[in-house]
Amino acid sequence: MAMRTASVHRVAMPDPGDASGLDGLFAAGLLDPAAVVCIMGKTPGNGLTNDHTRELAARSVAAVLAARLGIDADAVRARVMLLFSGGTEGLLAPHLLVFARAAAMATNDRTPSLAIGLARSRALAPPEIGRTAQLEAALAATRAALADAALEDPAQAAWVQVKCPIPAPTALAGASGLAAPDVAGIKHLSRAACALGVAAALGDVPRAALDAVALGARPDLGTRRACVTAAIDSPCVEVMVLGNSASWAGDTTIGSTALADMLDAPAVAALLARLGLPAAPQLTEAQRARLIGVILKGDPPPGDRLRGARHVMHDDSDIHAFRHYRAAMGGMLGAVTGDCHVYLSGGAEHQAAPGGAALAVIVRRG
Amino acid sequence: MAMRTASVHRVAMPDPGDASGLDGLFAAGLLDPAAVVCIMGKTPGNGLTNDHTRELAARSVAAVLAARLGIDADAVRARVMLLFSGGTEGLLAPHLLVFARAAAMATNDRTPSLAIGLARSRALAPPEIGRTAQLEAALAATRAALADAALEDPAQAAWVQVKCPIPAPTALAGASGLAAPDVAGIKHLSRAACALGVAAALGDVPRAALDAVALGARPDLGTRRACVTAAIDSPCVEVMVLGNSASWAGDTTIGSTALADMLDAPAVAALLARLGLPAAPQLTEAQRARLIGVILKGDPPPGDRLRGARHVMHDDSDIHAFRHYRAAMGGMLGAVTGDCHVYLSGGAEHQAAPGGAALAVIVRRG
Amino acid sequence: MAMRTASVHRVAMPDPGDASGLDGLFAAGLLDPAAVVCIMGKTPGNGLTNDHTRELAARSVAAVLAARLGIDADAVRARVMLLFSGGTEGLLAPHLLVFARAAAMATNDRTPSLAIGLARSRALAPPEIGRTAQLEAALAATRAALADAALEDPAQAAWVQVKCPIPAPTALAGASGLAAPDVAGIKHLSRAACALGVAAALGDVPRAALDAVALGARPDLGTRRACVTAAIDSPCVEVMVLGNSASWAGDTTIGSTALADMLDAPAVAALLARLGLPAAPQLTEAQRARLIGVILKGDPPPGDRLRGARHVMHDDSDIHAFRHYRAAMGGMLGAVTGDCHVYLSGGAEHQAAPGGAALAVIVRRG
Amino acid sequence: MAMRTASVHRVAMPDPGDASGLDGLFAAGLLDPAAVVCIMGKTPGNGLTNDHTRELAARSVAAVLAARLGIDADAVRARVMLLFSGGTEGLLAPHLLVFARAAAMATNDRTPSLAIGLARSRALAPPEIGRTAQLEAALAATRAALADAALEDPAQAAWVQVKCPIPAPTALAGASGLAAPDVAGIKHLSRAACALGVAAALGDVPRAALDAVALGARPDLGTRRACVTAAIDSPCVEVMVLGNSASWAGDTTIGSTALADMLDAPAVAALLARLGLPAAPQLTEAQRARLIGVILKGDPPPGDRLRGARHVMHDDSDIHAFRHYRAAMGGMLGAVTGDCHVYLSGGAEHQAAPGGAALAVIVRRG
User: Fold this and answer.
1) Cα separations in angstroms, B180 against B50, B177, B215, C145
2) CB crowding C242-278: b at 16 or more within 10 Å, else e
3) C139-176 pLDDT per residue, tens
């Protein structure tokens, strides 16, 4: 197989209606729009049911790509995996992570570099969402994405980014046979099914172990290398696998780890150190210049305690627990990185131990 | 002067209606209720105009002290400085810091230990609030508190905790001659006046320099050793000075520092190291057992940028910027300390550079 | 039986920490504090999990009664039914409704007047809450309250106000055998159990019909003459029955009706007309002077439609549906009454048809 | 002048990303897309600073018109006045009002029918916004719109709908010379300037009277026939005048009135009666079928009282006063109309007396 190279660019997107930052990448010749395979965006909405910043940002991004590629917006969505997550509470900054890949010159350098593989399942019918059919679709799509990245060993995969379908709220009215009676319930099960599919594909959980358990019933089971987000704009499971491989060229690399709880800064620091960015106690400006992407998937601890101390994230009827969580985790991660850019997403069913989190970091090698 | 000793106890208070944790201190003989001079509490409300958890917690705490001291609740409030701040967003935990002092045996140990001094100004009339009369009252009260603590040199003072008056919302309707037209405006000016009074008393700003400027007009001026919170339950400026002095005995000590911005974890780590608690990168459980109190005063950065990145704290019409801020700072500080207990208060007029913060830490010496 | 008289007074309570309005009633000699049997209060919190204004108001009210009666606050709570509901969204005004009864001179006037009866069940254990044991306790307490009011025929009962227990949030951590896993779920079942108990006692649903159905499973079943609110401060079911009876003297009367949906102003106008207050189209100031109390129990319509139009009450992740609902219903009712005082409470399990409401109005006869 | 006809269509738009309801009008042949001159939309966001549903809805609507007209979206915005207001709290329904006009056959019927006139000012520079230059621009544009509608006498104008510019939040960072330091302040002054310009053009306030007063200084001055909303997507003042004129044909008519306070249901009923829709006490389903559009502009009462009763709309730090207001007014208006569709907008500077409101109703004649 010919050598390939993968890159990730971080672009500011202060307003979800304005993707000129992305266009600037293309205008400056920093990136070929045809090479883009996925764009993940963090938008400034509430990240919950009625967050329309995700759709607005998706349209803005799709319009830029459409203009650059000379295709229409629907064709962009069919070609590029678009993944928007709302919620930039606290010091978090809205931004895009643009993933691209291209052919590369053969090289003798055997340093493992960032590898990107993608796959998309068939369209799922609403009653399949949040059920075994979706788990199987996610499993198959993850395997296909691993193959697309030429990652023979699932251990080479550092991270699996998944977009899973949910019916649009207005589509629920007449629907029957759904896995749960409301959007929140379907989201929960849809993420759970995808996470378990990924877990089986990566070998983190034996496939056979999943037959005996209901989705969500064993929150301890799962992978720690995935981030699944739910979206209403696609009926398919879309998967992007990120790993490191000597078959890929480039100066970008990725690592991931599990956080034990909301305060597990040592795990963050250890991952950064492993990637060549030791914080003492915080990354310097020069180190931060090499930090491209930080992706976190996690949830507030169940119950009302963290390290024995009372928290009120679940008891605040004015602010959703996920909003509390994102604001706090932006501060916790920023203490170590000195940076405000985190693609931080709640809803970590089978992607993290209860109260824990999964973290991926993408860096440019020094 | 006879030797004295000061102590600070941290007590959980998960519910603002339940001060049994405080009572437990007394029941266990860990603290003499008659020695208590101040109680600072963080409560789980929104920390804004309509946060009634502060008053509920104050009543709960006063009732416990009243029963233990055999006096009524009003007498408790006249005797003990009660200071409640709302807002335990994110991972922050509602709790009390109980300050006490007592006579001590003379000792040859000249290690400076925690010193506590208190003072209270005359009652201010509503039109004096947020004006020079209040600045002068705060200045005089701070000097009196320094003298009460026998801190001859203001440099010995690490921290000045101030409770400043604002009229109750319902009292504003008929009032005239007020410094600002609404509660928010009066709060702002009341905190500003007190902070400048403290700054002059500590010598952080020459008193003469304050005559020429309107309150709030020079946000760069001020002290970095104060935390002023506004309250409707007292018409006086109440001041507690905390410092270190060889005239005081005990194993408790305090330090303070300024944070340059919301991500200034290195300043936090440096202060902890100076107090004998080096984080690598986070305090261990044994070190955390020596961490008694963390007090932070600060605000989100003005404008919409932090380290060049866009933030939406001021643009979120559903969640107040202070609530975003507290959640984020709880995470940032917790990354270094590994702990959830911070008395974290917004409204840092003249107490921190814009976007910065002032931090005090109280520890038990190892 | 000797003749009795019942009265209801409405008192403003702008701040939950200040019950001086109530004290003013007693100071002015308008009401004998010893005659008070129940106080219902609407407080300005969010009316949801973390609304502490209810407890603060309860303490303020209990302190006033304790001082007037020369007993302590606990004795007040044992003697008087205290019922606080949070949420004065929109134009709603925080206020108290004070229910009292006393001996009266015999009279030949056979006009039915307001009758008040009270009863309290045994303390329920946490696992009994939201289960049949609670339904039975509510049924028995309602019967006892009917007898206490000397209302022989349940048809004479216009309204049954119920306070039902839920465990305090902090008590849930270690509890086992509960009817639901979280506070919201227990609240739901506790209200449902009480409402069905009331329905059986009033004969609105045959007791036998309830054995076959799980609580909440048949939302169409129930009474339309009850308002059940959950509270953490009592382990008992407390019941106040309000009716009209010729055995009672006085110039106060009560009526109730069911609203078909959130816009059922005609039902409101019809009830007012029946009580001698025809709105054309709104009560005049003179008519409003005779309007003492308005109590509404209802919920937003399930689904996302009202009269075929889309509403977003359930889809707004920043504002709870109950807060939307209370604000809207305050406006709807106020259009007819011209008044801002409604004891308006959400959570109408078995007290109203889905999307409908139950309404009680107390007036002084002209 | 040739006879013209004007029409208004109401279309549901449950989701701001989906304008298929609008497209359905065209597909069904109910309306010629080329006849559309203005679309007003109510979207389900928070209606405040970070409400992106307005922009998303505008794009959805513009895309439908662009496809039908064979022009691009920018050309649509240049041709059609697009006016989106966020906030469908409580029972309010997101929807569009589509205004169209066309040539009509001459007729002998002299019944005054709906007349529509439009005009657009030059682009204003940011420092002109909220200042006299904008007032003059609004005045001139209103006169031009009156002329465009052939309404010789300003008394024929029932309503003036105005879209006024504000700088985008992200544009404020570097700007200088602005009329106010933040978005909220500029919005306030921009609406005020436009409202006074309209008032002068309609003769509701003598132009000379405006020279002596600062914008906003005399809140009692103004018109009661205007609704001004601020938007970031156009630097011009855009004006649509609606009136009744015998020069126009059709079965549509409009009326307007002033509401004295939030509970002024009698004024609503009186206006409906004047338009041939007497409510007794609520419009019947047949009457509602003739109700096309309801537009309300108003604000919560200043201070904390409504008809002497305490309200907490300004003191709720979790929900903005405008959100409380919209929810309550939706209920109040719905009590009379029986309907959920109101284009209800806060920020009534010089458009209503403090605490009052201005109301327009568009109906089909019976």
Assistant:
1) 19, 8, 12, 53
2) bbbbebbbbebbbbbbbbebbbbbbbbbbbbeebebe
3) 999 999 999 999 999 999 999 999 999 887 667 767 78
DSSP string, D278-336: --SSS--HHHHTTEEEEEEEE-PPSTTEETTEE--TTT-SSS-HHHHHHHHHHHHHHHH
**Does the pLDDT at position C45 exceed 90?**
yes
Instruction: Tokens 């977009």: give the residue.
Output: A163
Helix B20-27 to helix B53-69 angle (10° resolution) is 20
Regions of chain A where pLDDT drops below 50 = none
Q: Is C207 on the interface with B (CB under 8 A)?
A: no
Query: pLDDT, tens digit, for every residue of B57-89?
Result: 999 999 999 999 999 999 999 999 999 999 999
D40 phi, psi to nearest 5 deg? -105, 135
pLDDT tens-digit map of C16-26: 999 999 999 99
Question: Residues A335-363: pLDDT tens digits?
Answer: 999 999 999 999 999 999 999 999 999 99
Residue of C nearest to B55 (CA): C17
* B92 and B42 Cβ atoms separated by less than 8 Å: yes
Identify whether the C-beta of residue A222 lies closer than 8 Å to the C-beta of residue A195.
Answer: yes
- Look at strands C309-310 and D36-43 and give their pairing: unpaired
Six-digit token pair at B315? 């643009």
CA distance A352 to A221: 9
- Residue D315 and residue B49: Cβ atoms within 8 Å? yes
A177: left (phi over 0), alpha (psi -120 to 50) or beta: left
Decide if D80 contacts D115 (C-beta within 8 A): no
A126 contacts A246 by C-beta, under 8 angstroms: no
D39 and D81 Cβ atoms separated by less than 8 Å: yes
DSSP-based three-state secondary structure for B332:
helix
Q: Dihedral, CA atoms, A191, A193, A194, A195, nearest 10 degrees?
A: 80
Q: How far is Cα D200 from Cα D219, in angstroms, rounded to an integer?
A: 15
Paired sense of beta strands B248-249 and B309-310, if any: unpaired
B253 to chain C, closest Cα gap in Å: 34
Pairing of strands A157-165, A238-245: antiparallel
Residues in chain A: 366
- Cα B364 to chain centroid distance, Å, stands at 19
Q: Which chain A residues contact residue D94 at CB under 8 A?
A: none
- Find all residues with CB under 8 Å of A145, minimum gap 6, and list them: A117, A118, A119, A160, A239, A240, A241
User: In this complex, do C49 and A169 lie within 8 Å of one another by their Cβ atoms?
Assistant: no
Tokens representing A254 are 């990725």
DSSP string for B40-100: EEEESS-SSTT--HHHHHHHHHHHHHHHHHTS-HHHHHHHSEEEEEE---TT---EEEEEE
Q: Give the pLDDT score at D97.
A: 98
The one-letter amino acid code at C58 reads: A
Sign of CA dihedral C285, C286, C292, C296: negative
Of D255, D228, D218, D274, the C-alpha closest to D113 is D255
Give Cα separations from C131 to C178, C216, C352 (angstroms): 9, 11, 20
In chain B, % helix, strand, coil (3-state, to 5) comes to 30, 30, 40
Q: What is the mean pLDDT of residues C212-236?
A: 85
Interface mutation target, options C172, C232, C315, C317, chain A, most CBs of A under 10 Å: C317
A88 near B CB under 8 A:
yes
Nearest-angstrom CA–CA distance, C26 and C66: 12
The answer to whether the beta carbons of residues D139 and D198 sit under 8 Å apart is yes
pLDDT given at position C213: 63
Which residue in B46, B90, B312 is closest to A88 by CB distance?
Answer: B312
Q: Which helix (H) or strand (E) holds C8?
A: strand C4-12
